[in-house]
Specification:
The complex is a heterodimer of chains A (509) and B (369). Chain A is α/β, with parallel strands linked by helices and 509 residues long. Chain A is built from 17 helices and 22 strands. Chain B has a domain of 235 residues. Chain B is built from 14 helices and three strands. In chain B, helix 3 packs across helix 8, helix 4 packs across helix 10 and helix 5 runs antiparallel to helix 10. In chain B, a hairpin with a 6-residue loop joins strand 2 and strand 3.
C-alpha cells in the first residue's frame, strides 16, 4: 500500500432531497498535516467526510490521492486507499476485549492465534504514538477516552495514513482531550495526515496547522491557524459577529423557589448517587452545577423533576413539597426541564413539530378541552414558539427529525419556557450545539432570569457555568464540594473541586 | 459497466408515494402468488380471476365479502390502536373467542326471558368485556413484569381456544344437539337481522363502521390518542413528559381486545347462532386483522377498505378451493405473501435506493428511485 502523500477533493457537490449538503467544495491535505474542518451543525462537515470515507458518493467532483483520481464506492475502497475514520459514536463490541475488537476486520491476522500477533503489533503502536491501552480488557471496562484510542488503533491496523476524526472531543474530559491531542501530534510527526472535525474553536486553534471553514455546504474560509484568532474564525463560521462575553445584569435574587433538603437518590444499579444534598435556588438566580458527568447530576435532575424516586430528604418547589410526586404534577407546578440527550428524551422525532410543542402540556387547556385536543390552538402555539425562539423549520407540519440539533434544542427550550415556569432545570443545554445556537440559548437563559424565573443549570462546560451562573456548585460523587458566588471563585479552584480534592465554602453570607 | 445500489433514508414520504408503494407491493405479492399457482400447474390469471370474481363479482360474493369484512374491520381498528403504541397484540384471535364465549353466556341464560332490544346491546357489551379481559392480562403482565406481549398474547389464544373446546364438549353442549359439540341455538332475541340473500348482519356492520370512525377520532384527536402515539414513537420522551405508561397501556389493550371481542359477538349472534369449535367461529380473523391494520397504515378508517379487501381474498380463496381443488390453507399462504410484500414495501417508504451505473473508473451517473 502506498502512503497518502497528498489528498485533494475538488468541486465536491452532494445534494439530498431538499437540501444541498455540499456545494463545490475544494479541500487539500498533505502528509504530516493536521487539518481542522470547522463549521456549525448542518454545515456539511460530516457529509463531506462521509464522501471521503466512501459512505456517500458525490453528485459531482473528484477525489485525488497523490495526484491520481480515485473512486470511493464504499468504506472498503477508502480503507484500501489508506483512509481511516473514527466516528463520533464508537463502533465497538462492548463485551469483547480490545484485542478481539481490533482483530475483527483486520485482514492480515493469521489464522492460528491471531490475538498473539495483534497484541504484539498493538504494543508497537502504543510505544510509537503513546496510544496506551490494555489489550485484554473488555471494551465496557474502558473510559470514553480509552475507547477512542481503540478506534484509532483499529484504523491504524487497517493501514490508515489519513485519519478522519468526527467531533472526537465531544465525549472526552479535559485531560483526556489533552492526551488525545498529544497522540495526534505525534502521529502527524510520523507522517500521518489528520482531518479533525469540530465546532470548538479553541481546539482547532491549539491542534491544527490549517483550518477550513464550512458554512451552509460551502467553503467560506481557509486559514493558517497561526494567523487567525477565535473571533475571526467564529465570524467565518456563523457569518456574523459572535458575543463571547454575555452581559449579565446584576440582580438581587428573590425568595427561594427550589429547596432541596437532605436529598438522597439511588442510581440505576442501586448505588447512592446523590448523598444528603441540601441547597436552594432563588427567583432571578441561576445556580450552575459543574462537575464531570456521572457524579450524580443526572439522578439529581431526575429526582427533582419526578422521573426518579428519592430515597430520603425533601424537594420543595415554591413552598410546596413535591418529593416523589409524579412528573406530570411537578411539571404542572411550574417546573420545566430541558433534558440531556435531547433527541432521546426531549422530543418525539417522528411526529410533527406542532405535536411536539405541546408535549407535557397536552393535557391542559387551551390545548385539551373536554374530549378533544384543539389542534388549531396547538398549531398557533407552535408557530408562536418557532417565531419567538427563532427555530428554523420549513413549517410546523414537518416531523421534528428533519430539524437540526440546534433547532431541536431551541424548540425544546421554547416549549419549556412558554409555560411561564417558576423553575427551569436545564441539563447540558448547549451540549453538542454550534456556536450560534449556543450563544442564542445562553442569552435566552439570562433573559428569562431577568424576567424572574430561577434556573438550575447542569453543565460540564465551565465556560458556560462562568458565563451564566450567579452561584456555582461543584458536584463530586453525589455531593457538592461547595456552593460559591460566581465572583469569588476561579477556574483552578473549580478544577480541583471537580476532581474531589478541594472543598470550599462561601465566605460570609 | 457496473451497477451499484445504495440505500439512503428518506427525509419525508408523500401520500402519492405511499399509495404507489402499497399498490406496487400488492402487485408484487400477487405476482409471487401467481408464480406459486403456476408451479402447481394452475393458470394463475384464471385462478386470480376466480378469486376476485368469487368475492366481488356476484351479489352473493359481495355479501360474503362484507360478512367476512365485518370482523376484520373491528379487529383491524383495534389492532391499529395497539400497534400505534408499539404494543404487538397478536392475541386478537383469542380476544374474539373470549368475547364470543361471554356473549354466548348472555344468549343462553338471559335471552329467553328478555327482548332483543335489551339482549343484543347486552351481548355486545359482554363481548367487549370478554375481549377486554383477554387483552387486559397481557397488558398487565407487560407493564408490571415486563413480559413480552408477543408471547403472552399469542399463548392466550391457545388457552381460550381450549377453554372454548372444553365448554362445548362439556357443560355447554346443547341438549338438542345429539352429541354434536354445539351449544343450543340462540333464542331469536339473541340473533341479528341478516340482509336478504346474504349473511350480512347489518347491526354489526354499522357498529364496525361507527367504531372505525370513533377509533380514528380517538387516535388523532384526543389526549389519549396523542399519548398513545408518543408512547409508541418514543417511550423515553413519554416518561419525560409525565405520560403514564401503565395506565395508557392497560386502557389501549382493553379497547383493542374489546374490539376483537365484539367481532366475536357478531360471528355467534349474526352467523352461527350458537357457539362451536374455535376454528368455525373465526377463520383466523385475529391474524388476518394484523394484515388489515398494517395495510391501513394503522389508520382505523382505512381499515374499512383494507378489511374488505382482505375479506375479498378470503372469500375468493374459498371459491378457488372449490373450483380448483386447492387445499384450504392456500388462502393463508396468499395472505402471508401479501403481508410479507407489504412489510417489504414499508422499507422502501422509509428508505430510498440509489442506483448508479458506472462506465469507467472516474465517472458516474446517479438516479434515485
Amino acid at each position: 500500500m502506498k502512503k497518502i502523500l497528498s489528498l485533494k477533493m475538488e468541486g465536491i457537490t452532494k445534494a439530498f432531497p431538499g437540501v444541498i449538503a455540499n456545494r463545490g467544495i475544494c479541500l487539500s491535505i498533505h502528509s504530516g498535516e493536521i487539518l481542522g474542518l470547522l463549521g456549525e451543525n448542518g454545515a456539511g462537515k460530516t457529509t463531506l467526510m462521509n464522501i471521503l470515507y466512501g459512505l456517500y458518493r458525490p453528485d459531482e467532483g473528484t477525489i485525488l490521492i497523490n495526484g491520481e483520481p480515485v473512486v470511493l464506492n464504499s468504506p472498503r475502497d477508502s480503507i484500501r486507499m489508506g483512509i481511516g475514520m473514527v466516528h463520533q459514536h464508537f463502533m465497538l463490541i462492548q463485551n469483547h476485549t480490545v484485542a478481539e475488537n481490533i482483530t475483527l476486520g483486520y485482514k492480515d491476522a493469521p489464522f492460528f492465534f491471531p490475538l498473539r500477533e495483534v497484541e504484539k503489533k498493538l504494543k508497537g503502536f502504543s510505544e510509537l504514538y503513546g496510544l496506551e491501552v490494555s489489550a485484554r480488557k473488555a471494551v465496557w471496562q474502558l473510559s470514553a477516552g480509552e475507547q477512542q484510542r481503540v478506534e484509532i488503533i483499529k484504523a491504524l491496523f487497517r493501514g490508515a495514513h489519513l485519519l478522519i476524526l468526527d467531533e472526537p472531543t465531544s465525549v472526552l474530559t479535559p485531560p483526556e482531550t489533552a492526551d488525545l491531542f498529544e497522540i495526534l501530534k505525534r502521529m502527524a510527526k510520523e507522517g500521518h495526515s489528520i482531518i479533525f472535525i469540530s465546532h470548538k474553536l479553541e481546539e482547532i486553534l491549539t491542534l491544527c496547522n490549517r483550518v477550513v471553514v464550512l458554512r451552509k455546504g460551502e467553503v467560506v474560509g481557509e486559514a493558517d491557524t497561526r494567523e487567525v484568532d477565535k473571533v475571526a474564525l467564529a465570524r467565518m463560521m456563523v457569518g456574523r459577529d459572535i458575543v463571547f462575553d454575555l452581559t449579565r445584569k446584576k440582580l438581587t435574587p428573590g425568595d427561594p423557589v427550589l429547596e432541596v433538603d437532605n436529598l438522597t437518590v439511588r442510581g440505576d444499579r442501586g448505588e447512592v448517587a446523590v448523598r444528603e444534598l441540601s441547597f436552594s435556588v432563588c427567583r432571578r438566580e441561576i445556580l450552575g452545577v459543574a462537575g464531570i458527568s456521572g457524579n450524580g447530576q443526572r439522578e439529581l435532575v431526575e429526582a427533582i423533576t419526578g422521573l426518579r424516586p428519592a430515597d430520603s430528604g425533601t424537594v420543595r418547589v415554591a413552598g410546596r413539597d413535591v418529593t416523589n410526586s409524579s412528573a406530570r404534577l411537578i411539571s404542572d407546578y411550574g417546573v420545566s426541564h430541558v433534558p440531556e440527550e435531547r433527541i432521546k428524551f426531549g422530543v418525539v422525532p417522528n411526529i410533527m413539530v406542532y405535536e411536539n410543542c405541546i408535549l407535557k402540556r397536552h393535557h391542559r387547556p387551551p390545548f385539551f378541552r373536554g374530549l378533544f385536543l384543539d389542534y388549531d390552538a396547538v398549531k398557533e402555539h407552535s408557530s408562536r414558539i418557532l417565531k419567538s425562539f427563532k427555530v428554523a423549520a420549513p413549517s410546523t407540519s414537518v416531523p421534528v427529525k428533519n430539524l437540526s440539533g440546534g433547532n431541536i434544542q431551541k424548540l425544546i427550550l421554547g416549549r419549556e419556557l412558554a409555560g411561564e415556569p417558576c423553575l427551569l432545570v436545564a441539563a447540558h443545554p448547549t451540549y453538542g450545539l454550534d456556536v450560534g445556537a449556543t450563544e442564542y440559548i445562553r442569552t435566552q437563559l439570562l433573559e428569562h432570569r431577568e424576567r424572574g424565573i430561577s434556573v438550575l443549570l447542569i453543565s460540564e462546560d465551565l465556560e458556560e457555568i462562568f458565563q451564566l451562573s450567579d452561584r456555582i456548585a461543584v458536584m463530586f460523587k453525589g455531593e457538592f464540594m461547595g456552593v460559591i458566588p460566581a465572583g469569588e471563585v476561579n477556574m483552578e479552584d473549580i478544577g480541583l473541586m471537580m476532581a474531589g480534592s478541594k472543598r470550599l465554602e462561601a465566605r460570609g453570607k | 459497466m457496473k451497477l451499484f445500489i445504495k440505500v439512503e433514508r428518506r427525509d419525508s414520504t408523500s401520500i402519492p408515494l405511499t399509495i404507489a408503494v402499497i399498490l406496487l407491493s400488492l402487485l408484487i405479492g400477487f405476482c409471487l402468488i401467481a408464480g406459486l399457482l403456476a408451479i402447481q400447474g394452475i393458470d394463475p390469471l384464471f385462478a386470480l380471476g376466480k378469486i376476485f370474481a368469487g368475492s366481488f363479482g356476484r351479489i352473493y360474493g359481495i355479501g360474503e365479502t362484507i360478512t367476512k369484512g365485518i370482523p376484520l374491520i373491528l379487529i383491524g381498528g383495534g389492532l391499529a390502536l395497539a400497534f400505534r403504541a408499539k404494543f404487538w397484540n397478536i392475541g386478537a384471535e383469542g380476544q374474539l373467542l373470549s368475547g364470543a364465549i361471554l356473549s354466548t353466556w348472555i344468549a343462553l341464560n338471559w335471552a329467553p326471558h328478555l327482548p332483543a332490544v335489551i339482549v343484543i346491546p347486552l351481548m355486545f357489551l359482554a363481548g367487549f368485556l370478554g375481549g377486554a379481559v383477554w387483552g387486559f392480562f397481557p397488558a398487565l403482565f407487560k407493564v408490571r413484569f415486563g413480559v413480552n406481549e408477543v408471547i403472552s398474547t399469542l399463548m392466550m389464544n391457545y388457552i381460550i381456544a381450549e377453554f372454548l373446546n372444553m365448554l362445548i364438549l362439556g357443560p355447554w353442549r346443547g341438549e338438542s344437539r345429539m352429541g354434536f359439540p354445539y351449544t343450543d341455538s340462540f333464542p331469536p332475541s339473541a340473533t341479528l337481522y341478516q340482509l336478504p340473500n346474504s349473511r350480512v348482519h347489518l347491526f354489526t356492520l354499522i357498529l364496525a363502521l361507527c367504531f372505525a370512525f370513533l377509533l380514528f377520532l380517538l387516535i388523532y384527536r384526543t389526549k389519549f390518542g396523542y399519548e398513545v402515539r408518543v408512547i409508541g414513537e418514543n417511550r423515553d420522551a413519554a416518561r419525560y413528559a409525565g405520560i403514564d405508561f401503565f395506565r395508557n397501556t392497560i386502557i389501549l389493550m382493553v379497547i383493542s381486545g374489546g374490539m376483537a371481542g365484539m367481532a366475536g359477538v357478531g360471528e355467534v349472534a349474526g352467523i352461527h347462532h350458537h357457539l362451536t369449535y374455535p376454528q368455525m367461529i373465526s377463520s383466523g380473523y385475529g391474524y388476518t386483522g394484523i394484515i388489515v391494520a398494517w395495510l391501513a397504515k394503522l389508520n382505523p378508517l382505512l381499515a374499512i377498505i383494507s378489511g374488505l379487501f382482505l375479506a375479498g381474498i378470503l372469500v375468493g380463496g374459498d371459491a378457488v378451493q372449490i373450483s380448483l381443488g386447492l387445499p384450504a390453507a392456500t388462502v393463508h399462504v396468499f395472505n402471508g405473501i401479501l403481508l410479507f410484500s407489504l412489510i417489504m414495501g414499508d422499507y422502501f417508504l422509509l428508505n430510498r435506493l440509489l442506483i448508479t451505473i458506472r462506465r469507467d473508473r472516474a465517472e458516474g451517473r446517479t438516479g434515485g428511485v
